[in-house]
């Protein structure tokens, strides 16, 4: 079974920023898919797909986002 977990990144991110973050987050174990919901003036939602039996480690995710640049997971 596949699950979607939503994480929130601080700020309205550009297409370039989401592309950079996506490249790093795909390196996190168990991430199967990534999409973003960007709405002007609001924090960005990142939706990750993964198996329900294999949750994503938040520390791994935060480390990947830090490698992408000055972005912050809320």
Give the secondary structure arrangement, pairings included.
Blueprint: E1 2-9, H1 15-25, E2 33-37, E3 44-51, H2 58-68
Number of domains: 1
Query: What's the number of helices?
Result: 2
Structural class: alpha+beta
> What overall geometry do the principal axes of the alpha carbons give?
globular
Average residue-wise pLDDT:
96
The major pleated sheet works out as:
3 strands, antiparallel
Please give the order of strands in the largest beta sheet.
1-3-2
- For this structure, the CATH topology is Alpha-Beta Plaits
Gyration radius, rounded: 12 Å
Runs in which pLDDT lies below 50 for 5 or more consecutive residues are none
**In CATH's first tier, which class applies?**
Alpha Beta
CATH level-two architecture = 2-Layer Sandwich
Instruction: Estimate percent helicity.
Output: 25-40%
Q: Topology as H/E string? A: EHEEH
The termini sit apart by 26 Å
DSSP strand tally: 3
Report strand %.
Answer: 25-35%
Q: Care to describe what's here?
A:
- Strands 1-3-2 form a 3-stranded antiparallel beta sheet, with helices on one face.
- The chain has one domain: 2-Layer Sandwich (Alpha-Beta Plaits).
- Helices cover 30% and strands 28% of the residues.
- By secondary structure, it is of the alpha+beta class.
- The termini are far apart.
Characteristics:
single chain; 74 residues; Alpha-Beta Plaits; 3 strands; 30% helix; globular
């Amino acid at each position: 079974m596949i699950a979607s977990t939503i994480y929130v990144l601080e700020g309205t991110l550009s297409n370039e920023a989401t592309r950079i973050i996506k490249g790093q987050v795909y390196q996190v174990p168990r991430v199967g898919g990534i999409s973003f919901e960007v709405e002007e003036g609001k924090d960005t939602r990142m939706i990750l797909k993964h198996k329900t039996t294999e949750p994503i480690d938040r520390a791994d995710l935060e480390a990947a986002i830090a490698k992408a640049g000055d972005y912050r997971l809320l």
